Amino acid sequence: MRIPGFGLSGRVPILQHDNSGGKPHQLGILAFETARTMSRLVSLHLALSDAEITRLCCSMRSQGVAYLNSDNHGVLLRVACAEMIDELDAAAADIARLSGGCRAAWPHGFQRFYADIKAGMGDTSCLGLGFQASDLEKKVKKMERYVASTSALYFAMKDLAELEAGERQRAEKWNKWAGADKVDPNSDPIRELINLQQDRVRRLREQSLWTRDLRKVNDLMARLVISLLARISAVFGAVVKELPPVTMRRHGRVEFQPRRQARFAHHHHPNGAGGIFFSGPLVKPAHGNILIRKSGSLIHCTSKQAAGAESWKTQALEPPHNSLGASGLALRYARVVIFLEHLAKSPELVGKEAREELYWMLPVGIRSAVRRKLQGHWKLDDGRNPPGALATGWKEAVEGILEWLAPIARDTERWHEERSFEQQQLSAAPRVMMLQTLMFSDKEKTEVAIVELLVAFSFVCRYKQGEDEDEY
């Protein structure tokens, strides 16, 4: 499987920039916000790689996702696409905000241009955007280096601030105790550490986004946004008709096409392969340069068209009313399953405190259901079977449920962690998709599975430890 590559070519200037403004405007403190946006784009680029799309398709076929969420791959692909577009929208909004200080026409006004492209109304020919896979990889590698060096700069500046604050406190205490006219004999080693850290900060500033030109960095990110939008359209266009149409030309060339011309696309195929090309998640390789060429006159989309282009995304990302996401229980149930998975590794060592902790993690309804089911099993237990054999049977039941339920629970916790710590961490690694989590899981099915898991685990502990019936 291969996905058509979309790259960036710097051979053609996208617009005439205003070079009369003297010195370039360095990012400075905006480097950290820019690095977060850049890491989001790199992460999205990696998520659209061949390997990650293959992994995503495997996740959709997993037992947990298919049983609890949906076995309709079209629905799941729409959710995945909507989440990627949502990430891209957030990055585009950041670029538009950062571009407010740019004097040049591009990328100032990028938000409007991006909305036009998404609505199938934009014209990319005026930008001279040349897309080539080899160029894209070079640009992404550069972005990864910028993100890494800017992250290192952040922590270096944090360490420097702590050293300087500690030195000031030490100097204040010394002056109060010995007087300002006496020199602290221990201040030289600390001062040397501060000087070394200052040198490191200066070096990292030169390597990171701190000293880079705001306009050039925004230009780089804006190009990548359009590149990623084209790739998303090519990968998911077969199941998400609301995406801007992408047409395959001769020699593997791809271009955006306005919706008003989409139905006449077969007239523009010199190779005879008429129709709009949508690759879907599994496609043949594209050869040669991939260009975004002229797609018609520039007509801005109306607010109604823009709203229509956004409504499908909102609907796709909205968990159904009978799901754990809608009831706000996804993360809570995920932690219950993860905790049970940890306890199940050594059930003979599970004590009363661990069981009480597990008990208070459960909603009232789950507790009642578990107790009722336990009482039913206790009545059927006539004591004839040996405890060892019973423990083995229940242990196999626990392992069988955890085999498919634990992965989706772990992905749920990771999905929340990745978004909760977004402001503190600059990670360009591919992230867990919402379709892999319990957010869209059927509430009734999930609760039945958790009850069965708790009952089986309870009997494992009972027969392993020889305890009485009063566990829940």
Describe the structure in your own words:
The chain is 60% helix and 2% strand. By secondary structure, it is mainly α. The chain folds into two domains: 1-318, no CATH class; 324-464, no CATH class. Helix 12 (330-344) packs across helix 15 (387-420). Strand 2 (246-248) and strand 3 form a beta hairpin. Residues 324-414 form the DUF668 domain. Residues 29-84 form the DUF3475 domain. InterPro entries: DUF3475, DUF668.
Pick out the low-confidence regions. 1-22, 262-301
Count of helical stretches:
16
Number of strands: 4
Give Rg in angstroms: 29 Å
Domain DUF668: 324-414
Domain DUF3475: 29-84
Describe the structure concisely for a colleague.
By secondary structure, the chain is mainly α.
Keywords:
4 strands, 60% helix, 472 residues, two-stranded antiparallel ribbon, 2 domains, disordered N terminus, flat, two-stranded antiparallel sheet, single chain, mainly alpha
Fold topology:
Blueprint: H1 31-47, H2 50-60, H3 63-69, H4 73-98, H5 110-118, E1 130-131, H6 133-178, H7 187-207, H8 214-236, E2 246-248, E3 254-256, H9 259-262, E4 290-291, H10 303-317, H11 324-327, H12 330-344, H13 352-361, H14 364-380, H15 387-420, H16 443-465
Helix pairs in contact: 1-4, 1-6, 1-8, 4-8, 4-10, 6-7, 12-15, 12-16, 14-16, 15-16
